[in-house]
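Quick log. Single chain, no ligands specified.
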Amino acid sequence: MKKRLTSLLCVCAIYLVLLLAGPGLMAQSDSSTHLTLKQCLDLAYSNNLDLKQAELQAATIGIDYRQAKQNMLPQINGSIEHGNNQGRSIDPFTNSYLNQKIEYANYGVNGGVILFNGLATQNGIRQQRLALAAGKEEIQQEKDNLSINLMNAYFLVLSTADLLEQIKIQANLTRKQVERLTIMHQEGAVPPAQFYDLKGQLASDEINLVNTKNQLDAAVLDLCQMMNIPYDPGIQLEPLGPQDFLQAYEGNPSSIYQTALGALAVVKAANLRTESAEKGVKAWRSQLWPTLSLNGGLFTNYSSAARTAQFLRTVESPTGDYVQINGTESPVLTMRDEFSMQKIAYGDQFKNNYSTNINLSLRIPLLNYMQTRNRIDRAKIQLKSAELVEKTTRIRLQQQVEQAFLNMTATYNRYKTVLQQVDAFQESFRTAEARFNEGVLNSVEYLTAKNNLDRSNINLIIAKYEYVFRTRVLDFYQGKPIW
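-> predicted structure:
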């Protein structure tokens, strides 16, 4: 009897130590190596490829916005043309026909600025500015989706790790009983059925231990893949504190939904897309107005056939006529200037052939295959689609908030009930274990009490982390930090 009492006290002491130490085993490791939820999120933000793709799309929209603003600037174009002609052609210098090889060059600068086009440019700028703001919100939306998924994976690792520790406690307790019964079985002091019942239970606990370890490895792998980092089976996560699950969640679905409307990026993005589509309709309607523009240009040219007369001298030249002077014919002479044709230098032509123009242009759209009207109709359809997406987003958000609040309430109620169940089964198992060790309780009744306590402890761990996750989701809807 003394030997049995000593064995009973040892087993009870071991069980209490393991039960008290189990939930804190992860917290006993070096806290400096722990990854917090925020650190995991930061890693995921920096490594997630879908998020980077969303950032590139927003950068593209930013270029479109920049171009929309730069459409207010004038257009300025320059032209340079060099070439040669052979045969009959027009001299670009004199516009006369030539039948020789000439080299020519034309230079021009022209530009124009739109003075009025029905505010199409201004509406286009507003449309792209709203589209850029929506693109930035969609980046945040990608982050939000990633945050929820990663938080779920993070808590799954923590809960599975706690389950593993709990199952280790269960297996260790069963192993101690098997070791005690082994000695007694060898001495013939215990029925064989009880001994083998406990051995079978130990095998079941070890199978659960292996399965749970595999589940933990899979959960860690999933978390690493979400952060896009190499798989690290030894990764350490910051455990939760008691303050995370010891109190009821305050709030109601209606107030949470109203807060979420102003906090969530998915709602803001939908609103901005609708406003952008409205400006798109206005921009296309502006295409029906006349366009007034101011234009001007500066031009010059060069021709190798260009010549200029260079004065040499004045000489007397007979005209072929005669006059009678005293009965004698005398030839009529005239003074004639002599010139030498000199090629005009390239630089001189460039300076001397300048010409300019300036004009006001009014373009009135009369008929262009009804393209503008059809584009306006398409813009209206896009607006209706954006409005439908915005309405759908609000409805789905309300449904998600209501469902999340219902899930949180149900989980909290289950968590409180499981707490009471654990207390009851702990007392039941304490009594059953004492009676079993005294030999007044059979193995079936002992294992029933033990399995009831084991299941309630496992259910408590699951309910605890599910409740924390549900509350963090509601925090997320309200724009509160989830770490």
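The chain is about 60% helix and 20% strand.
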